[in-house]
Design brief:
Elements: E1 7-9, E2 14-18, E3 23-27, H1 29-40, H2 43-49, H3 55-67, E4 98-103, H4 111-120, E5 125-130, H5 136-146, E6 153-159, H6 166-172, E7 176-182, E8 193-195, E9 198-202, H7 222-230, E10 238-241, E11 247-248, H8 266-274, E12 308-311, E13 314-316, E14 323-324, E15 329-330, E16 344-347, E17 350-353, H9 355-366
Parallel strand pairs: 4-5, 4-10, 5-6, 6-7, 7-9
Antiparallel strand pairs: 1-2, 2-3, 8-9, 10-11, 12-13, 14-15, 16-17
Bound molecules: iron/sulfur cluster.
Iron/sulfur cluster (SF4) binds near residues 292, 321 and 325.
């Protein structure tokens, strides 16, 4: 079995993550079980342990997995050690991986201090969220402050303006990875397109931070996969700076850890980042959180809901996700039911699953298979 294509078992189905190709595919949980068996036993061993009347099924499963390249047949003389397992260790060279800054016309953020923080935390990824009314000159005045520190990626989120030439922006700053234009008029503008590695997206909707998940924003890659094993990929090593310079771990968090305008040196910000309070959610990975721990998307989904601690090893969310892994349905899909309607409840008391009710719902949606 190829270790760069791990299989994630969900409650209702599994997903095979193809990490090098950044794609995924759903498979039944029975395929997950078969791949798991194969990872611990030779196929000969599996045949020998299977009653004769079921060996046809083993063959069928094996052919399916070979055809899909989930497994590779290797000659017996090749040492298995030539195919080491993918290391799940997450090592990141920076103290902070992403800084997000919100900017409006009354913004009091001292951008030189943002530059100081980027350098001090070795952060090379920044997201700038501009409110309505910013023109190219304004945006450039911010980008110019940080242009010499070798950012790997800059994401620009900005409202549509007829006078703004977005391509001049991406042409002038090659490290802009992504421009998201919100409140764009329908049909008039613009080619959502990819310019090399620089992507420009438009949306007619206003910019808002929503808890709604979408497959469009899920990412299958080695960095996210390894980080999500032991960390919360939304909070871990992230820093958010509000329009008035307040420092938070994330936009929707109430805790303010200081204000960048009052900092005298980078040691002050490093001290805040190193505090337990700032890192409270960094290690709350999905394996500890109700519902998500049984979801096949758990290592590709970046979830901005704030988890609530039940005890040392258990967390839950007060806001329900728009994907229900117990029935493998999204809220906008036919047959969707909320958790409670399926007999699943998660709250401060615990995670309670009424198996009888859940089985009946799944039978109604998916039939007997
Ligand atoms: S249930 Fe959790 S892991 Fe699954 S899509 Fe929703 S937030 Fe992501």
């Amino acid at each position: 079995m190829t270790s760069t294509c791990p299989t994630l078992k969900g409650f209702n189905r599994a997903a095979i993550y193809d990490l090098p190709k950044s794609t995924y595919e759903f498979v039944p949980n029975s395929i997950y079980d078969f791949l798991n068996l194969l990872s611990q036993n030779s196929i000969t061993q599996i045949y020998n342990d299977t009653p004769v009347e079921y060996r046809g099924i083993v063959e069928e499963y094996l052919n399916y997995c070979l055809e899909k390249e989930y497994v590779l047949e290797i000659p017996s003389e090749i040492n298995k050690k030539s195919f080491p397992k993918l290391s799940l260790e997450f090592e990141f060279p920076s103290i902070i991986s992403n800084i997000s800054v919100r900017i409006n016309y009354n913004s009091t953020v001292d951008f030189e201090k943002i530059k100081t923080i980027l350098i001090a935390t070795k952060c090379y990824n920044i997201q700038l969220i501009f409110s309505k009314g910013f023109d190219l000159k304004n945006v450039v005045s911010y980008l110019d402050v940080i242009k010499d520190i070798g950012m790997s990626s800059m994401e620009i989120i900005i409202a549509y303006s007829a006078d703004f030439d977005y391509e001049i922006l991406t042409n002038s700053y090659k490290n802009i990875s992504f421009v998201f234009i919100y409140s764009a008029p329908s049909g008039q503008f613009m080619k959502s397109h990819v310019l090399g590695l620089q992507q420009i997206f438009t949306s007619e909707k206003p910019f808002e931070i929503t808890h709604t998940k979408s497959l469009d924003f899920f990412n299958v890659n080695i960095t996210l996969f390894t980080e999500s094993q032991k960390h919360n990929t939304y909070f871990n090593r992230k820093l958010f700076i509000d329009v008035n310079g307040d420092i938070k771990n994330a936009p929707l968090m109430e805790n303010i850890f200081g204000n960048i305008n009052s900092f005298n040196n980078s040691a002050e910000i490093l001290k805040i980042i190193a505090s337990n309070e700032f890192q409270e959610y960094w290690n709350v990975h999905k394996g500890l959180i109700d519902i998500c721990k049984e979801c096949e998307f758990r290592h590709m989904c970046v979830d901005n809901r704030i988890p609530v601690k039940r005890n040392e090893k258990e967390w839950y969310h007060e806001i329900e996700c728009n994907y229900n892994p117990y029935i493998a349905k999204w809220q906008d899909e036919e047959g969707y039911k909320a958790l409670k309607e399926c007999g699943v409840q998660s709250n401060e008391q615990g995670l309670m699953i009424n198996r009888k009710k859940l089985n009946a719902v799944n039978k109604e949606i998916w039939g007997d298979d």
